[in-house]
Write a structure and sequence with these properties.
Layout (H helix, E strand, L loop, with lengths): L1 H39 L2 H9 L3 E6 L6 E2 L5 E13 L4 H26 L4 H13 L5 E8 H7 L9 H4 L1 E10 L7 H4 L11 H5 L1 H5 L3 E8 L2 E10 L6 E4 L3 H18 L3 E8 L5 E9 L5 E2 L4 H4 L9 H10 L8 E3 L4 E4 L2 E4 L7 E3 H7 L2 H12 L3 H10 L18 E2 L11 H6 L4 E2 L2 H12 L4 E2 L4 E6 L2 E5 L4 E3 L5 H16 L6 H4 L7 E10 L10 E11 L6 E8 L9 H21 L15 E6 H11 L3 E3 L6 E7 L2 E5 L19 H11 L2 E5 L4 E4 L12 E6 L1
Parallel strand pairs: 2-8, 26-28, 29-31
Antiparallel strand pairs: 1-6, 2-3, 3-4, 3-5, 6-7, 8-19, 9-10, 9-24, 10-11, 12-15, 13-14, 16-17, 18-21, 19-20, 22-23, 23-24, 25-27, 27-28, 30-31
């Protein structure tokens, strides 16, 4: 009986075990089945849900501000370019088995092939069909298309149905251009994606030009991040900079400097024009010879490169001697035939044979011996007194100009320096054993021209936002009086004599003018490739710094050119004096001459033609309250024909060139011409001012992306 009871218990336990085992098997089957269903049937849904949890913010770069010249021309600006993406997983594109996509693919491919000209219709169709098949969510279709191309693209089949139905996503961004290309290029600077790599004003005023970056929320979907619509913080556009530069003066300075550099096979040079009363830099040209023999604005030689100045430094020595009452303009100094040995080193003049002459004559003849003797005589035992004068003239101090990162640091020796020797004072007196930039010397000469007041040089007049001035920069005095009135009067007389006197070093080149020029020539011997001053290694730095009109100075200018060992002309007057005169002649004729040249006015019945953008014409005529007739309904460009105050706008056929065909911009202003050409993919250089008179690449001819076209203005 007990045995049977035990068997019953065993069977009951086994039954329960089997039941649990079967339950576990059934549960496992259900779990596996559910896992298979989730993975295979609902997999795409859950994967997209998982992807949607991957979010990130990306920056939206603000539109960078524009840099203008003082006369209102754009020196550096941004133009819009566009990147085109397609979301081939968009609901509107895939609904009804993709009927919308299939109905528009052919016509869309034809339009894109005609617009961009880089692929055939069949190639575009194949590309779009493959991306549609793969359900690419953020497919890159085109990069860096122009505004004109974008305006046409948004009217294409499928695209015009909007983002939700077409899947097309168009993202704008900016491209930085310098419309005048070479003009003050190193001073205006370059704007790069990494701010610390910027140079010039683009670097110094980057925080204002850059604006405030926005942000966009991006969601990771099917292998790519896509923007979340409506989840954006708009960027705050950058402010505009109004410089002190004048485009006419800048163009004149660039042209005159370039002519001399090419003709004399020079290495590098600079020309700086400063407004005497304010310290404004009105023009600054910097040219350096490139390996291929051409010239470009590669370094800011006027502001950033300190060199031994040569004889232009004699003004500082003369000021020191006169201010300490050691000499006056009529004091006699013996030039000893033009050569003298100082503590074992020989100093000589460029023109030998000179004997005892006045200090004024020694200055206008630029006698090295005379200034070395005078400085050594009076400052050999008290060198700190001479160095103190140079310090008060700020020749050992940074200029303080806006482009701080590019400013060269001057070096004026002090008696405590290890390199100081008995010959230091004689050599410093005539422009050696010290390093200063052309801008340092220009500030000194400008102070003399400005009745003894030294002004801080500056390049920016104002900062504006949407046309309203938010910050104004005013002239700043650095030194109220660099010397006494007595000394100042004598300095001015000596500077004028350099040009006016028959024996003055600047007389031959600069005297024949309708206005008076005062200044000083300089020819410094420099070592080629730092190999010393041995014969064959010597090259010459030619300088002329002066102001005009001498009786009432308006502008002060420095021209400093480093010649090569192949240069035919080497002296300051012949090289830099020639450049100075060409620039000053044109500035004087345009801005200072009292003789006015006027053309006879054309009769009212003359026909006036112009090219430009439709919206700008509309704004002008509405503001002037003049009637006009627009004979065209579409497009962005118009040609204006005006006669008897009646204006008619037409569509300019010659700028409608599609693809890589050069449009005509003859008759346009530079702004519109650059805008049109750059958006077509051409690189633009410009020469002159006014409207476009001719273009180097003929209208209607084909071109390659990135090709350079030169516009000649009238």
């Amino acid at each position: 009986m007990l045995k049977l009871h035990i068997l019953d218990i065993k069977k009951d336990i086994l039954w329960r075990v089997y039941l649990c085992f079967i339950g576990i098997i059934l549960l496992g089957a259900v779990v596996l089945g559910r896992a298979f269903y989730i993975q295979q049937v609902e997999g795409a849904y859950w994967r997209s849900m998982g992807d949607s949890l991957h979010l990130k913010y990306v920056p939206l770069v603000a539109e960078r501000g524009t840099i203008f010249s003082e006369d209102g021309n754009m020196l550096s600006t941004s133009i819009p370019i566009f990147d085109v993406y397609v979301d081939f997983g968009a609901d509107g594109l895939r609904e009804k088995s993709g009927r919308r996509f299939k109905n528009n693919i052919d016509s869309l491919s034809i339009c894109m092939a005609n617009l961009f000209g880089d692929k055939k219709k069949s190639e575009y169709k194949k590309e779009l069909q493959l991306a549609y098949k793969n359900k690419d969510r953020y497919y890159t279709l085109k990069k860096k298309i122009s505004f004109v191309e974008y305006a046409q693209l948004r009217d294409f089949p499928l695209v015009r149905q909007g983002r939700n139905k077409s899947g097309f996503i168009i993202e704008p961004r900016d491209k930085r251009i310098n419309p005048y290309v070479l003009l003050a290029n190193r001073t205006i600077g370059l704007s790069r994606d990494i701010a610390k790599l910027n140079v010039g004003l683009e670097q110094s005023y980057d925080s204002l030009l850059r604006g405030r970056t926005g942000q966009r929320l991006m969601r990771y979907i099917a292998g790519a991040y896509m923007p979340v619509e409506g989840a954006e913080v708009e960027p705050e556009n950058g402010k505009d900079i109004i410089t002190t530069l004048d485009t006419y003066m800048q163009d004149v300075a660039e042209s005159a400097l370039m002519k001399m550099m090419i003709g004399n096979n020079s290495l590098h040079g600079t020309a700086i024009v400063m407004e005497t009363g304010t310290g404004k830099i009105k023009a600054i040209a910097n040219l350096g010879k490139q390996p291929n023999g051409s010239y470009a604005e590669d370094l800011n030689y006027g502001i950033g490169k300190a060199t031994e100045p040569g004889s232009i430094f004699k003004l500082a020595t003369l000021l020191s001697l006169m201010e300490d009452k050691y000499v006056n303009k009529n004091s006699i100094v013996d030039c000893e035939g033009g050569a003298k040995v100082f503590y074992g080193l020989r100093i000589k003049d460029a023109h030998m044979g000179t004997g005892a002459i006045t200090v004024k004559d020694a200055f206008l003849r630029s006698s090295n011996v005379a200034f070395a003797k005078l400085a050594d005589q009076y400052y050999h035992n008290q060198p700190s007194k001479f160095v103190g004068h140079l310090h008060r003239l700020r020749l050992d101090t940074m200029t303080g100009i806006d482009i701080t990162a590019s400013s060269g640091r001057p070096t004026i020796k002090k008696p405590a320096n290890r390199s100081w020797s008995k010959t230091t004072i004689p050599y410093m007196a005539h422009g050696y054993e010290e390093l200063v930039t052309p801008l340092h010397m220009l500030m000194l000469y400008n102070a003399v021209a400005n009745n003894g007041t030294m002004m801080k040089p500056y390049l920016v007049n104002a900062v504006t936002e949407y046309g309203l001035e938010v910050k104004k920069i005013t002239p700043q005095v650095l030194v109220e009086k660099i010397c006494s009135e007595e000394t100042l009067a004598q300095l001015k007389e000596c500077l004028a004599a350099v040009v006016d006197s028959l024996h003055g070093t600047g007389h031959k080149i600069l005297y024949d003018s309708n206005y008076a020029i005062a200044g000083k020539t300089g020819t410094a011997v420099t070592a080629l490739d730092n190999r010393g001053y041995n014969k064959g290694n010597k090259i010459y730095q030619a300088s002329f710094i002066g102001y005009f009109p001498a009786n009432q100075p308006r502008y002060t200018m420095a021209v400093v050119i480093q010649n090569s060992n192949e240069s035919k002309l080497i002296y300051g007057a012949d090289v830099s004096g020639t450049v100075f005169k060409e620039i000053s002649d044109k500035i004087y004729a345009r801005f200072l001459s009292t003789k006015k040249f006027t053309d006879p006015l054309l009769p009212d019945t003359s026909r006036y033609n112009y090219y430009g953008m439709k919206n700008e014409f509309n704004s002008i005529f509405n503001w002037l309250n003049l009637p006009y007739k627009d004979s065209v309904t579409g497009g962005y460009w118009r040609t204006l024909s005006m006669k008897n105050n009646a204006a008619v706008l037409n569509s300019p056929i010659n700028i409608r060139a599609a693809g890589l065909i050069t449009p005509s911009v003859i008759g346009m202003g530079l702004k519109d011409a650059v805008y049109l050409m750059e958006n077509k993919g051409l690189k633009v250089t410009a020469s002159g001012r006014g409207r476009v008179l001719n273009q180097s690449v003929m209208a209607g001819t084909s071109f390659t992306k990135g090709q350079t076209v030169t516009l000649f203005l009238n």
